[in-house]
């Protein structure tokens, strides 16, 4: 009989301690949903998030840079860009145009920068901070001559797909294996 009393008493103590520990401890179910930016026009969008938490920021262009350009004209048997040489005038006089393919609007049309050495990196400030969108833009780079403009390079790019820490880079390689690289610098807002 004594044995049953001890078992009954220890069972009561066990039940009493479970009730007490449950009363003192808060049990929370944590929602594992992840927030972020759903908008595909933002360089920081994330398709794997559960909900849009209002943190989207968008790319606004600050500066255009001709990071690399061909030093010879592939359409003219690899000759210098300007056939009539006056001093250093065999170097290209560059013009850059970027057009929104969806709307046909010109995003940027540079002023001419003359006699660009292959090792130089000319740049143009954006006339205003235009927002970039998640669709294709067309770019063309010309050598602006007295006799007309010669196409140096061109292509299509999607700035949001290429955006990386304030930089968007795109380009082309011509028939002479000379590369053109355009770099756009942007600010997130």
Kindly describe this structure.
There is one protein chain. The longest helix has 23 residues, at 2-24. The protein has a domain at 59-188: Immunoglobulin-like. A hairpin with a 5-residue loop joins strand 4 and strand 5. Residues 1-30 have low confidence and may be disordered. The protein has helices at 2-24, 159-162, and strands at 35-36, 51-52, 59-68, 94-100, 106-109, 123-125, 137-145, 148-157, 167-173, 179-188. The chain has 189 residues and is α+β, with helices and mostly antiparallel strands.
How is the secondary structure organized here?
Elements: H1 2-24, E1 35-36, E2 51-52, E3 59-68, E4 94-100, E5 106-109, E6 123-125, E7 137-145, E8 148-157, H2 159-162, E9 167-173, E10 179-188
Parallel strand pairs: 1-2
Antiparallel strand pairs: 3-6, 3-10, 4-5, 4-7, 7-8, 9-10
Short description:
This protein is α+β, with helices and mostly antiparallel strands and 189 residues long.
């Amino acid at each position: 009989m004594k044995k049953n009393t001890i078992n009954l008493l220890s069972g009561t103590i066990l039940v009493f301690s479970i009730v007490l520990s449950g009363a003192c401890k808060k049990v929370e179910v944590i929602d594992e949903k992840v927030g972020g930016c759903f908008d595909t026009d933002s360089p920081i969008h994330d398709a794997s998030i559960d909900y849009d938490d209002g943190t989207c920021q968008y790319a606004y262009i600050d500066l255009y840079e001709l990071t690399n350009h061909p030093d010879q004209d592939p359409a003219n048997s690899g000759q210098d860009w300007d056939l009539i040489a006056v001093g250093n005038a065999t170097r290209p006089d560059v013009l850059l145009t970027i057009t929104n393919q969806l709307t046909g609007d010109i995003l940027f049309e540079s002023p001419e920068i003359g006699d660009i050495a292959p090792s130089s990196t000319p740049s143009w400030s954006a006339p205003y901070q235009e927002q970039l969108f998640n669709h294709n833009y067309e770019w063309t780079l010309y050598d602006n001559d007295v006799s007309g403009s010669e196409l140096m390079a061109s292509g299509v790019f999607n700035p949001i797909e290429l955006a990386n820490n304030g930089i968007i880079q795109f380009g082309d390689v011509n028939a002479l294996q000379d590369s053109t690289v355009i770099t756009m610098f942007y600010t997130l807002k």
